[in-house]
Amino acid sequence: MTKILIVEDESIVAQGMSLILSEAGHRVVGIADDRSSALAKADRYRPELVLMDIALARNSDGIEVARDLRDRLGVAVVFISAHLDARTRERAAALGAAGCLDKPYSPSSLLAAVAAAGPLATGG
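RE: above sequence
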């Protein structure tokens, strides 16, 4: 299944995502909470998909981090956030996001967002 990096500053949320994804057969290659840890883990583990919060630790902007990841690795990104207002959705769309998912989300909607991004994540 898909190799996924989770970038989320709320540890309990990240762990919950990881559990849902792992139980569905995906491989979570790491969890990061800010720009520097996301870039380091992406460089090390080469994920196929990144699940990205918008508001990250240490004032990191998830959309800017996603831009860096796309430029470095060409990785697909699904934004998962409670901050998906119209302006933020426009910024995500301009970046070429593989999807957006509002918090709170259900396990089924998380898995559906990952499945919908799958062809982008695997280059298909």
